[in-house]
Design a protein that fits this description.
Elements (H helix, E strand, L loop, with lengths): L8 H4 L2 E2 L6 H4 L4 E2 L3 E6 L5 H15 L3 E6 L4 H7 L7 H6 L3 E5 L16 H14 L1 E7 L11 H17 L3 E7 L19 E10 L2 E11 L8 E7 L2 E4 L15 E2 L4 H6 L4 E2 L3 E6 L5 H14 L4 E5 L4 H10 L4 H6 L3 E5 L7 H15 L3 E5 L1 H5 L4 H17 L3 E7 L9 H6 L5 E10 L2 E11 L9 E6 L2 E7 L3 E2 L7 E2 H11 L2
Parallel strand pairs: 3-7, 3-8, 4-5, 4-6, 6-7, 14-18, 14-19, 15-16, 15-17, 17-18
Antiparallel strand pairs: 1-2, 8-9, 9-10, 10-11, 12-13, 19-20, 20-21, 21-22, 23-24
Helix pairs in contact: 12-14
Length: 504
Amino acid sequence: MLKKKVVKKNQIFGKVDTGIEGFSVISEGGLPKGRATLISGTSGSGKTIYSIEFLWRGMNKYKENGVFVTFEETPGDICKNVESLGWDLRTMEKTGKLAFVDASPTEGDKILAGSYDFGALIARIIYAIKKVKAKRVAIDSITALFPQYQDAGLIRRELFNLTAALKRIGITTILTSERIEEYGEVARFGVEEFVSDNVIILRNVLEGEKRRRTIEILKFRGTVHQKGEFPFTISKIGFKILPLSGLELIQRSSMKRITLGNKELDRMTGGGLFRDSIILVSGPTGTGKTTMSTTFVDSGCNNGERCILFAYEESQNQLVRNGLSWGVDLTKHINKGLLRVVCRYPETMGPEDHLLFIKDQLEDFKPNRLVVDSLSAMERVLSLNSFRDFVISLTSYTKLKEIAGLFTSTSKTLLGGESITEAHISTLTDAIVILRYVEMHGEMRRGITVIKMRGSNHEKEIREFEIGNNGINIKEPFSGVEGIMTGMARSIILAEEYELKKLG
């Protein structure tokens, strides 16, 4: 007879760090120790990957061995499926860190009726736990049990006995279960959630033409956790959760200023951009946003700074060619290793993957300056919530790394008007430069103004500017004109004369 190890109450109610990136933030420490947690989600939501990573991180990071109980796939298939993530489960099994309990169906299995119990299965699991001295158990997936038994009540009772047995010996357990809808019942058969202390929901929702993965802690019995859905992605090395609640306002503030690449623009901003600030350049298409971005990185490279430019609308060859037309040689900076240009369409991946890709590039290149041209390209392929999360995470990370950033956004109409991009990022940026077309005397001119410069005084005038062979040439302020920012510029003198005529 197996001797049961009794665990004291105060040993159970701690938390176990899963080792999954970002989960400790939303769970405020990890999974409740010594308890059973149900991971429920639709097909393809990442349930099996989560449960295997829970064991893998435990074995490799915390020296906590594990047991994997499978009711669906064979151990061989499971090992093969996760090899692409760099998880060598066969080696873990050979070295005594991992044990499999294979309860997957075999050919010829029949539906069972009558009274049955899981006594033999529980004994096998506890034997495997003792064999490898496991602290963690993953059971995938309990949904596979229901087609084998006619009595759902029996399964609920026996699953409860199983989780109770594991709880008595202090094992932290994950059970996976399938659900039919992303926003419906917790699990397919309606009883799975009642055999566990905690419930986590994984979703893989189709928004537009893109899938968006989220994780939600629905229930943590006896302990606190973050509420709501949090985006995640499954990368080349496993789960990566991106919790906005984990962002903190701990960035340092520098008094040092850097040039924007144009003396007049530096003067308009009160002496240039602060070293660790983000500036938003907004305007209609063709007003000079990319020109300003190119000038920004050119000035940084000329000062020996490392710069990185993410372009979502133009290729590197286009950027190089266009830069030459206003006297900027980007190829020179690229060859010197001071500039990295990354070009890709926003449609190539989801928002979480884009964000992680940008972070990886920043970690690898370690730039002093960052340009994103343009955020509006991301806006057109993301839902409102996805775009908001993307912008907040990107700006927070850039500030945390003390990188000077220049982001561009495109106005909805040719003569101005606020875009969704401006609405989401305007409060997060430290400076805002607005570019506008100005229709005057039968021709289109360009106007520029600084409407925000956090921590510094700045010019309030709207100046005229031109784009020529030497880039942006900022001229004198417009005089006698109003309505430029609204896209309805008119001469003040002519307006006054019109009003006088009306008065007779």
